[in-house]
Amino acid sequence: MRVLVVGGAGYIGSHTVYELIKDQQEVIILDNLSSGYMELVHPEAKFYHGDIRNKSDIENVFKQEKIDVVMHFAAKIIVPESVKEPLEYYYNNVEGVRILLEVMNDFGCKKIVFSSTAAVYGEASGICKEDMPTKPINPYGETKLATEKMIQWVANAYGFHYVIFRYFNVAGADKSLKIGLMKDQLTHLIPVAIQGILGIRDHLTIYGNDYPTKDGTCIRDYIHVSDLAYAHVLGAHYLLNGGSSEIMNLGSNSGFTVLEVAQAVNEIAPLKYVIGDRRDGDPAELIASNEKARQILNWVPKYTLKDIVLSDYQYRKKISKK
Ligand code: UDP
Predict the structure, then answer these.
(1) How do the domains of the chain map onto residue ranges?
(2) Among 4, 8, 26, 108, which residue has the least CB neighbours within 10 Å?
(3) Which of 48, 140, 167, 313 is catalytic?
(4) What average pLDDT does the segment 125-140 reach?
(5) Distance between CA 48 and CA 44 in Å, rounded?
(6) pLDDT above 70: percentage of residues in the chain
C-alpha cells in the first residue's frame, strides 16, 4: 500500500514510518517541520515539506502520488500551551484536518488513520472504554474530540472509512535507536526521569503523593511507541481490507504508579526524586481497556515498562553525546 504519513518527521509519526517500511509499504511524508526533524525521516520514505493548513501543499502531494490511505500525526499536543493559545490549536488540529479531508475527498482517497488521545475522556478515572462519555477538560482534548466528530460526519456524508486511535501514555524509542523523542520536547514522566539518571537534571519532581491509589501517586498506562506505531500498520491493512470505521484505545490494559515508574528507572541507575504539589488537571488513574484493538486488529503490545524505560534511556544517552 501507499501511505501518506502527515507528520512523519515527528516522534510517533517517525516510528510509524519505520514500522510501515519494515512491513514493506511505500511511505510518503508531508511535514512542516515545526516540531519534526529531518533526522527522524526514514531514508526510504519520500519527503514533502508542507503544511496541512495550506491546501495547495496537500494538493501538490496528491497530484504527484497515488495514495491508498492517510495517517495523520501533525498535531499540536502540549496541554498548557493549548490553554494559552486555543485558537492556534483549533487552527492546526481542527482546521488543518478539515483541509486535509477536503483534499482527500477531491482526490477520491477516503481512508484515514487518525491519532487521537485519552485526553478526550477528561477527568475520567479508572479503566477507559471507548464508549465512555467524552468530556475533555482542556483545548487540546477538545480539538481532538472535535476532529474525531468531523471525521465521523465526513465519513457519513462522503463514504470515508476511518480508524481513530486514542493514545494513552506513549514512551520509548525504536530498537535501532535511530529515532526517539528529541531533547527539547520533554515534560513527560519517563524522559524526565531518565534525564534525572543521566545527570541532565538534578532530580525528578513527583507531582503529588496524596491521590487515592496504592502508594498515593497517579496511575497511568504506558505503551511503547513501537507497539503503538505497529497498531497503525494493522489499522491501515484493516481499512484496505474493507474494515468498518472504528474508534480504538491504544494502551496496555494495566497501570503503574509514578513511584513504580521511578523505581523502574532507578533500576537502571540511581534516581533522586522529591515529592511536589499536585499538577493541575491530573486524574488519579487512567488505564486503557485495549480489548477492542486486540479483537479487531489482533494487536498485542509486546514491550513491558522495563523495555520502555530502557529504550528511552539508551536513546537519550545516545543523543546527549551529540
Ligand atoms: N509526572 C510527575 N513528574 C514529572 C512529569 C509527570 O510526577 O516530571 C506525573 C504526572 O503528574 C502524571 C504522570 O506522571 O501523574 C504522567 O504524566 P505525563 O506528563 O508523563 O503524562 P500525562 O498522563 O499527563 O499525559
Answers:
(1) 2-170+222-250, 173-221+252-320
(2) 108
(3) 140
(4) 93
(5) 13
(6) 99
Is residue 22 within 8 Å of residue 48, measured between CB atoms? Answer: no
Among residues 53, 5, 64, which one has the least CA distance to residue 29? 5
Q: What is the pLDDT of residues 198-209, one digit of tens each?
A: 999 999 999 999
CATH of domain 2-170+222-250: 3.40.50.720
- Partnered with residue 322 across adjacent β-strands are none
Q: Is 158 a catalytic residue?
A: no
Which amino acid residue places its CA nearest to atom 19 of ligand 1? 188
Nearest CA, atom 18, ligand 1? 188
Mean pLDDT across 287-296: 97
Residues 257, 218: contact at Cβ < 8 Å?
A: yes
Q: What is the pLDDT of residue 139?
A: 94
pTM of full prediction above 0.90: yes
